[in-house]
Write a structure and sequence with these properties.
Number of helices: 14
Structural class: alpha+beta
Distance between the termini: 33 Å
Shape: globular
Bound molecules: FE2/S2 (inorganic) cluster, fe (ii) ion
Strand order of the largest sheet: 13-14-15-16-17-18-12-19
Helix content: 25-40%
Largest sheet: 8 strands, mixed
Strand content: 15-25%
Length: 426
């Protein structure tokens, strides 16, 4: 349970807030590389700021104020030039550093005027990596953009999914260090959603939480998994400060503002040996719906189920009214670390997880119970028999609404067609 002041400190992310300042010390995935290749100008909102992301005709990315410095027209309706973005109202043009590089009428009648030099938009750096575009909204110098080792795995079909979720970022991130919810939310609830009334999934017997350089690791023993199971020997990674790495996929929870979060999922699927060697030309990224036609939340896929939990806690969860138990030791560790991060930033230091050494930021290893399989691969016949991977070969289990063009790309890569899935079969 937190005091109202402490709940506010951990959840408010707008400009000048304590947690906003902590999270701005990290790079965040905000869009797909292929998305900007299709539509070069995109409005985005991050940490309570309205911005526009673009890819200019020379292939450079910019992230600048959403509203033109002239008379505040909406630059998400601007158009890209060889260099930078041009406002569609009177043609003022901006580069990726926010500098104004053209003011057509002023340049005509008053070429020596100082207005252009004085005009500037807020601008933030953007970098492409692993199919995603990453932004840094903190003070310079920017830290390293993490080079996680799974970004280099080969012979895999990768896709990334974005979902806009109407709740605060911390509800989503607390889900990254909550092992017991898997048994109830994903296993038992999925059975009931499929109409299976009897029987429960194997229950959790023991939990462990450990801190490491890039976050926390949680481990579990359940009725059907002992001390030699990778869920205990390797575990899962609560990736600092707003990520989750589950061995085969990443999730990030990027604050849009206090009451909205961009959920980003990046998943890797090894292709069957018959389809190797496979090199992916472009990583497909897509936007997932989270409500069904009836207006209720979609419940059929893993992230959709998680989203039901996050939004169910309210736009900003009231942590003054909760009752933490033994299953929530990880949650308490996470919050303690966030308070330490706030103190570190206020003292002028980097918070946990910020990497500054480029040599250390090369293929940074993260614990993964899937790594062996992803390194070695399997022939199709064995793949189809595998208790875990057979399902991922035929279904995209993480988000409902996978577009047909992504299903076709999956099939072209793996040789296996995606089959519909009405309810999760774990
Ligand atoms: S408002 Fe953008 S150029 Fe005038
Ligand atoms: Fe979950």
């Amino acid at each position: 349970m937190l005091t109202p002041e402490k709940n506010e400190a951990l959840t408010r992310v707008g400009p000048g807030t304590q947690m906003g300042e902590v999270l701005r010390r990290h790079w965040h995935p905000i869009a797909g590389i292929d998305e900007l290749a299709r539509h070069p100008v995109k409005p985005v909102r991050l940490f309570g700021e309205d911005l526009v992301l673009y890819r200019d005709l020379s292939g450079h990315y910019g992230l600048v104020d959403r509203f033109c410095a002239h008379r505040r027209a909406d630059l998400s309706y601007g158009f890209v030039e060889e260099r930078g973005l041009r406002c569609s109202y009177h043609g003022w043009q901006y580069d990726h550093q926010g500098g104004c590089i053209a003011q057509p009428y002023e340049d005509q009648v008053d070429p020596a005027g100082k207005l252009r030099q004085r005009t500037r938009l807020q601008a933030y750096p953007v970098r492409p990596k692993a199919g995603l575009l990453w932004a840094y909204l903190g003070p310079q110098p920017a830290p390293e953009l993490p080079d996680w080792e799974p970004f280099h795995w080969e012979n895999g079909f990768v896709q990334a999914v974005f979902a806009e979720v109407p709740c605060n970022w911390l509800q989503a991130q607390e889900n990254s260090i909550d092992p017991v919810h898997f048994e109830w939310m994903h296993a038992n609830w999925s059975r009931r959603l499929r109409g299976q009334m009897g029987g429960y999934a194997p229950t959790h017997l023991q939990l462990a939480f450990e801190e490491f350089e890039h976050g926390f690791i949680y481990k579990r023993i359940t009725e059907d998994s002992g001390e030699n199971n990778p869920l205990w020997t390797i575990g899962r990674v609560c990736l600092w400060p707003n990520g989750f790495f589950l061995g085969d996929h990443f999730e990030w929870r990027v604050p849009v503002d206090d009451e909205n979060t961009l959920s980003v999922t990046w998943s890797f699927l090894r292709v069957p040996r018959e389809a190797e060697p496979f090199a992916q030309a472009s990583i497909p990224t897509w936007h997932a719906p989270i409500r069904g036609e009836d207006g209720r939340w979609i419940t059929s896929h893993i992230l959709n189920q998680d989203i039901v939990a996050w939004v169910g806690q309210g736009r900003i969860a009231d942590r003054t009214r909760e009752n933490l138990g033994a299953s929530d030791r990880g949650i308490a560790m996470l919050r303690r670390q966030l308070f330490e991060d706030i103190e570190a930033v206020q003292a002028g230091h980097d918070p946990k997880g910020v990497m500054r050494n480029p040599e250390a930021n090369q293929r940074v290893f993260l614990p993964s119970d899937s790594r062996d399989f992803f390194m070695k691969g399997l022939p199709l016949a064995d793949y189809r028999r595998h208790p875990k991977w057979a399902r991922l070969l035929r279904h995209f289990i993480f988000h409902a609404g996978q577009p047909e063009w992504v299903q076709q790309a999956h099939q072209a890569a793996t040789g296996v067609a995606i089959e519909p899935m009405d309810q999760l079969d774990l």
